[in-house]
Amino acid sequence: MFDLELSYSILLIVCLIAACGFEFVNGFHDTANAVATVIYTNSLKPNQAVIWSGLWNFLGVFFGGVGVAMGIVNLLPVESLVDQNLAHSLSMILALLLSAIFWNLLTWYLGIPCSSSHTLIGSILGVGLAYSLLPESTGAAVNWSKAKEIGYSLMLSPIFGFSMVIILMFFLRSITKKTEYGDSLFKEPKKNAPPPMWIRGILVLTCTLVSFFHGSNDGQKGVGLVMLILIGIVPSYFALDAAVTPHDLHDPLVKIEQIVYSIDSTLLSAPDRAKLTEAKVMTAQIQTAILNKKSVEAISKEDRFIIRRDIMLMDRHVNELKEKSEVRLSENDKASLKSEFKKLRKITDYSPRWVIVMISISLGLGTMIGWKRIVKTLGEKIGKEHLNYAQGASAEIVAATTIGLSTGLGLPVSTTHVLSSGIAGSMVASKGIKNLQPDTVRNILIAWLLTLPVVMIMAGSLFILFRNIL
Question: Are 242 and 296 in contact (CB under 8 A)?
Answer without folding.
Answer: yes
